[in-house]
Specification:
The complex is a heterodimer of chains A (383) and B (324).
Chain A lengths: L12 H17 L5 H4 L8 H9 L18 H13 L5 H17 L2 H12 L5 E4 L15 E5 L2 E8 L10 E7 L11 E7 L6 E7 L5 E14 L3 E2 L5 H13 L9 H11 L5 H29 L5 H25 L11 H12 L10 H11 L4
Parallel strand pairs in A: 1-4
Antiparallel strand pairs in A: 2-3, 3-7, 4-5, 5-8, 6-7
Helix pairs in contact in A: 1-4, 5-6, 5-7, 8-10, 8-11, 9-10, 10-12
Chain B lengths: L5 H16 L1 H10 L4 H10 L17 H13 L6 H14 L8 E4 L5 E3 L6 E6 L2 E5 L1 E6 L9 E7 L2 E4 L5 H30 L1 E2 L2 E2 L4 H30 L3 H27 L10 H11 L6 H26 L1
Parallel strand pairs in B: 1-3
Antiparallel strand pairs in B: 2-6, 3-4, 4-7, 5-6, 8-9
Helix pairs in contact in B: 1-3, 1-4, 4-6, 5-6, 6-7, 6-8, 6-9, 7-8, 8-9, 8-10
Family (chain B): Belongs to the acyl-CoA dehydrogenase family.
GO molecular function, one term (chain B): flavin adenine dinucleotide binding
InterPro entries (chain B): AcylCo_DH-like_C, AcylCo_DH/oxidase_C, AcylCoA_DH/ox_N, AcylCoA_DH/ox_N_sf, AcylCoA_DH/oxidase_NM_dom_sf
Amino acid sequence: MTTLRFPSPPQHDAAEALRGEVRAFLAETLAERSPLHRADSWNGFDRDFSRKLGQRGWLGMTWPKRYGGHERSAFERYVVVEETLAAGAPVAAHWIADRQSGPSLLKYGTEEQKQSVLPGIAAGETVFCIGMSEPDSGSDLAATRTRAVPVDGGWRVTGTKLWTTGAHHADYMILFCRTSGTPADRQAGTSQLLVDLKATEGLTIRPIIDLAGQHHFNEVHFEDAFLPATALIGTEGAGWEQVMSELAFERSGPERFLSSMQLLIELVGVLQGAPGEAAQLALGRLTAHLVTLRRLSRGVAAMLEAGENPGTHAAIVKDLGATFEQDLPDIARGLIDAEPDAASTSDLVAVLAHITLNAPSFSLRGGTREILRGIIARGLGLR
Amino acid sequence: MTSMSEIGTMLADTAERLFASHADAIDDAARDGRWPAAAWAAVEESGLPLALVPEEQGGFGVPAGEAMALIRLTGRHALALPLAETIIGNALLAAAGLPLAEGPIGLADGAQARVPWGRFAQTLVYASGADLHRCSSRGMATEGSNLAGAPRDILSFSGGESRAAAGASLLELGALARALQMAGALERVLELTVEHVSTRVQFGRPLAKFQAIQQELAKLAGEVAAASAAADQAADAYVGGGDLGFAVAVARARIGEAAGKANGIAHQLHGAIGFTREHALHRLTTALWAWRDEFGTQRYWTLAIGKRALEAGRDGYWPMVVAA
């Protein structure tokens, strides 16, 4: 398969009707939010905001109603996601749960797990974190060392998860770990377990401060922590297949090219007062990229809606998207004369400082650029 | 992609067969500066030049989306004939109520433009202001050619008829054709490159097995996917009646950039053999280098988007992106 054609996103009237409603809600709710805070959309943790989205029926949108969902289409969910991100809303309290933990539980979880956890996510009440990376297992996820040993009535877990965004706020983690064999068995013998972070003993969560001085990452240490037998998600030993499916949810959305959106918006705002050819050319190029990325990304949503596996397509969008997001700060620097400073009274200069310091993460989180390109090469039949 | 209509499938099959069977003759003629009369006669006989002309005006009633696919196919073959120009030119003539063309069309955006295949064109179609002109006699002012060796001549027009142009502008449609052709050519460039690295063995294994090669090929695939999507978006705007000017501008800016990057990677991965006249790659890459600046340069279209973005301003920017 050499040609990677993306399906045309359909014109979806219900989704477009929803767009106006979402914009009006965001304009009102975020009226006081500064551009600098808007630029921190992914990391903005605000349970109140997430609860408001839940009340409007904009979380768990595609899930069955019996689990608190709203049985709407992937295109309607797409509109809510892209509008909240473009507006720089604080999405961290529902982001992971709505995007990947919930859909994973819906696909693989037990009836009890679905009933006890999904309604809380759809209400914007329940916060999730991701238990994948470890000190010796980042891109190489199959090298996981965290081990759950079967004991009477459940599991005893020992090991360390790393780069766990939001673990200090989260209610639950989906833990990827080894339940049989040894790390030499690679993908075989791995499973996923649902961890109730507030009710599990033997857990320590330690902050890791990033280069910008922010606390989003954590190290989560399990020391002989007991999990009940009911914590198992899906099938014991099928963890690899399940975690790959979870990653496909993680890689497919518009968040993969909207991280620097506030910088682009502030740049347009400053340059509209002093347009010149250099500004027009730079913005013309960036806009052509953005419009095209959006088309590609909605093509992935169309594949998801049709029940197809968009693994390779999602990797292409994320790779192109991260490059776009990361190029933006330097392009902005070429167009304005200023020292980046988050304390600046100029919104553009403050946002530029924030995005510059955070940009390295864009091609690391959710699969590094190199891993994604390996996936694309496999899709082309090279490996 | 939606399923092809019967007439569309037939035309696409015919086109594929025609382009393949006449490829050598067309290529030889282009290299020697001759007109491949037999190949063009076969193309005309097939009815392809009328793909976008409505049935009641003498066309075949091919759905517009499938005519777009045909134009894309001419790019995939790096076809050295003014077929895309003739399809577009006939559509413009029909829309303006002028008689359809005799023979190949020289499609010119203005009287001073470099006309693709000008010296071989039998009918000239050019726009000036709000008018569309059709004439068949002209004088040669300056002969020129593009990077693929295709004629680009400045002509002096005289006589003929003119009417008020209707529908999409000549410049937009010409630019749309080049966007589609580039997307088609880029898809073929990716195929050739995958084929080459899969079969070429160095250090005891196919090039495709080296991670350095895989990473470059993934970048190439990303550029081609973006180009393909941008061309689809412009074609959809034409077929569905969206904002064609903006969609074409986006397509030309994004695909032009993709063409430059993709050509660089494809040539690097092909090694020296891809730099020769005997290898097929150059027919695609030289055409891509040329097409990205025809019917408006890449810079022209990029500027047009930038102006729109600044007019939209801080608050109107995101809605503009979504409406595209």
